[in-house]
Design a protein that fits this description.
372 residues, alpha+beta, Multidrug efflux transporter AcrB transmembrane fold, Alpha-Beta Plaits, 2 domains, 4-stranded antiparallel sheet, two-stranded parallel ribbon, elongated
Length: 372
Amino acid sequence: MSGRWGRLYNGETTIDFVGRRWWGFILSGILVLATLVSLLFQGLNLGIDFEGGVAWEAPVKNGLTIDSATAILEDNNIESRNAKVQTLGSGAGERIRVQVDDQTTEVRSAVQKSLADTAKVDVAEVSVSSVSSSWGRSITIKAIRALLVFFLLVSMYIAWRFEWKMAIAAIMAMVHDVIVSVGVYSLLGFEVTPSTVIAFLTILGFSLYDTIVVFDKVHDNTSRFSASRVSYEDIVNVSMNQVLMRSLNTSLAAVLPVLSLLVLGSGVFGAVALQEFALALFVGLLTGAYSSIFIATPLLSLLKSREPKFRSLIGQRSLKADMTSLMQTGSSVSRKQSARSGTDTTGATSTPVDAVTAVLSHPPRPRKKTRR
């Protein structure tokens, strides 16, 4: 396999990720800003498990529609403006779900009976579920607590396995993934349920895996180039190009099954539980794959390049042929030519060794003949 795809497949690309890192930072900054604005003015569409309330589900039969369900709420003195009325499923299995704030037992029974009468079904076929607001707050606190514990354990592991700077970069990338994913849910008005929280924790694990793969290669190449004067920016670029195909394959292999769940499970078969879980997974997998390449590793480059060992080499990056040579031999083409011509990496020329030897050396003296 030759050409651009062949180089990508063999890990021989020469993309300057470090030089383009500000593109990723600017894009992420825009996404984070949009998330904050959306959360401030629009907020999240929290499900009944977080807000508390009552939900009825009735089969779509005879005269039961979204409009008639809304009219039933108004007849029972429930403000339909704040109600969530939606159709679930498809075909003969369609159901209408009505969700409102917490109501008294009498109101719950009255709405249940009205829905059953409109659909001309037995009252037992209309399900009623209720969650108190205090229980919803408890679930929210537990979800936040689980997220913080996850961040703490992950940072401790990465700091032990690699170093603390890698832990900081990985945690910041995962925080970025959570913020962007929450922003997507806020902007598009998707409902946040316990399944969404579970999916978020799942995608953080995937994002962490992809980041660890890149960091492991960076760690190996740091040891490989430890004896030579190679900038940390070069180490990051070489590592990213070497694992780029693996990252793309991993992300694609994870996204395709989730996409099939989202399209077939929720769209064709009408499984709402699959829709909630698959949607969060789909959004998170995309942001996780993006952050491991354009957030985590560039942040690591910024942190490590300031170390005394690499500080004098900031801005020195091997591009194209130089990067290819650096991957294969551990030294760029320009450095090899500089060494042969007596030029150091800073551009200063030195006197060739052979010339110095010629000036300082003397012709050998003839050996004296000894008398017998």
